[in-house]
Amino acid sequence: MSNEIREKDHEWVKTFHSNFDRLLTLLEKLLEKRQPSAYGDELLTDKEVAYLLKVSRRTLQDYRNNGILPYTQVGGKILYRASDIERTLMKGYKEAYRYKRS
């Protein structure tokens, strides 16, 4: 690709926008066909949960082993329900308070 400035009526720009619009339409169709999650709850992989909680996958294994984080195992695949993750986080939630000086 050269360093030339491309105007909005340039063929390359038109092609880019056309391809982008086509991809957007395909994505919208995919989202429309999306099946609801099992039992109405989203299932997350260990990789997704590790990313959301900002911990390593090894730490998740410790959480499972210590009974901190509920999970389900199907074959070799570990899955977490989003509601279980939220419930676990809320159990550890501590309300902020102000130190009152007398």
TrEMBL record:
Where the record annotates domain Helix-turn-helix, the positions are 43-89
What's the protein called, per UniProt? Helix-turn-helix domain-containing protein
What InterPro entries is this protein classified in?
Answer: DNA-bd_dom_put_sf, HTH_17
Pfam families the record matches: HTH_17
Q: Which domain of life is it from?
A: Bacteria
Please report the organism this UniProt entry assigns to the protein: Phocaeicola salanitronis (strain DSM 18170 / JCM 13657 / CCUG 60908 / BL78)
